[in-house]
Design brief:
The structure is a single chain. The strands form 2 sheets. This protein has a 4-stranded mixed sheet with strand order 3-4-6-5, covered by helices on one side. It contains 16 helices and 6 strands. The chain is α+β, with helices and mostly antiparallel strands. It starts with 10 loop residues before the first helix and ends with a strand. α1 (11-27) packs parallel to α10, α2 (38-48) crosses α13 (297-315) and α3 crosses α7 (157-174). Helices cover 59% and strands 7% of the residues. The chain folds into 2 domains: 11-352, no CATH class; 360-425, Translation Initiation Factor IF3 (2-Layer Sandwich), CATH 3.30.110.140.
Length: 427
């Protein structure tokens, strides 16, 4: 099975492949410059289930179904499932709602923001700047003691629940008349690929996501925290491929971009909220799918929050409209979301002050060599009087190498299930 689903993929080749698939989906029927947008597509699914009345946003998007199945089967093929939960799931749920509000005001999630930028959308540049500022601000708050708790090993309930849910969605997609589902006949929801093309594209992206850990939040976060530029170069490769393909097919242009608006201020503010909320949540919507497929209950709560947020956004007139200014409800939702994120920092930061080791760096998703390399960088950049907790996989090779690196330093090991918690202090 490892020949079909290798245990790791270079993140830059994976980013290039994802970029090609996303562009192809936009050429094969999905709305142009929106080959794959997790938040918008979830909004379409919510509409198809009859949970909101926006006639222009109603379709069972096969890409979302394929995205989960691709990551899920990749996880099982390599026995990399790690069921876990407990890191402030209710907070993660409301962060998912904030992500949905911000993305639907901007008219796109982070991935679509970069897709729109590659297609020449000048307003997308404003959104990307807002998103990067949100990630930078969230990363800064993480280094100032924000803690959302620690995941603990759990049963397989979250991933099995999601598996059943997406199987049901697949049934709805293949037999909509049986369930009296009504799909959009106009607007963005009426543009879609053939079901099996969308499902295949989603499956491929899901596998690539899980094997490479591609994420739109990680590039800046890893660069600021760990001086690790791999994810940043991967994001540049993704955007470069989008730009090249748009120029090649003659679809690049700065004016009259579909499914977009030109409100600069609220594009920036909406994506600022998305960047801040996703940094707290631990990754972009694509990454949340990959984590949920491993059995991460907290990631499943983020996705549930996005579903509920998409429902509320369509019911409360929060969703922005092409060529029309952002509604008052949309502006209020963004402001409330930003206040909520700052409130999380205020309360969680105050709780974190009682811990001696407030800053946490999670390296459990990396391979053994990568974990040790990043631990070495952390030790090099640890400031005098600095303290940090590093989470590693409990592995004999890691423990041995880590002990050699930590000779002459103040540290202690704590074992929590399959996690090795290394508490460091630079006196």
């Amino acid at each position: 099975m490892e020949r079909i689903f290798p245990k790791s993929l270079g993140i830059i080749p994976a980013a290039l492949a994802i970029s090609v698939v996303v562009f192809a989906l936009g050429q094969l029927g999905n709305p142009f410059n929106m080959g794959l947008c997790v938040v918008s597509f979830i909004g379409d699914i919510v509409g198809a289930l009859g949970l909101h009345n926006n006639a222009f946003s109603s379709y069972i998007r096969p890409e979302i179904i394929g995205l989960f199945f691709g990551a899920f089967f990749s996880t099982r093929a390599n026995a990399s499932a790690r069921p876990r939960a407990g890191a402030s799931p209710i907070t993660k749920f409301f962060l998912g709602i904030c992500v949905a509000f911000g993305a639907l005001v901007f008219m796109g999630d982070p991935l679509r923001a970069f897709v729109r930028l590659g297609a020449g959308d000048s307003n997308a540049l404003v959104g990307v700047c807002g998103f990067l500022c949100g990630v930078a601000g969230g990363t800064f708050l993480l280094t100032r003691g924000l803690m959302l708790g620690k995941s603990r090993s759990q049963g397989r309930t979250p991933s099995l629940f999601l598996l059943l849910f997406f199987l049901l969605l697949l049934l709805f997609l293949l037999a909509p008349d049986m369930f009296s589902l009504k799909f959009s006949v106009a607007g963005a929801g009426s543009f879609h690929t053939a079901p099996f093309i969308g499902l295949g594209g989603g499956l491929l992206v899901g596998v690539l996501l899980h094997r490479s850990k591609f994420c739109c939040v990680a590039p800046l976060r890893q660069l600021l925290l760990l001086r690790d530029g791999r994810f940043f170069y991967a994001l540049l490769a993704f955007m470069g491929a989008q730009l090249f393909l748009n120029l090649l097919f003659g679809t690049w242009g700065m004016l009259n971009q579909p499914l977009a608006h030109n409100n600069i201020l609220w594009s920036f503010m909406a994506m600022l909220l998305v960047g801040l909320a996703l940094t707290f949540a631990g990754g972009c919507p694509l990454r949340q799918f990959a984590l949920a497929s491993e059995g991460d209950g907290d990631a499943a709560m983020v996705l549930l929050g996005i579903f509920i947020g998409a429902l509320l956004a369509n019911r409360w007139d929060i969703v922005a409209t092409q060529g029309v200014s952002v509604s008052s409800a949309g502006k209020l939702a963004v402001v409330v979301g930003l206040c909520f994120c700052l409130a999380i920092f205020f309360f969680k930061h105050r709780l974190a002050k009682v811990h001696r080791f407030a800053n946490v760096c999670d390296l459990r998703d990396y391979s053994v060599p990568q974990s040790l390399q990043l631990l070495k960088k952390l030790l090099k950049n640890l400031k005098p009087l600095g303290r940090i907790t590093v989470l590693l996989n409990s592995n004999a090779d890691i423990e041995k190498e880590a002990e050699e690196m930590l000779l002459g330093r103040s540290y202690r090991f704590l074992y929590r299930g399959e996690t090795l918690e290394v508490q460091l202090a630079e006196e």
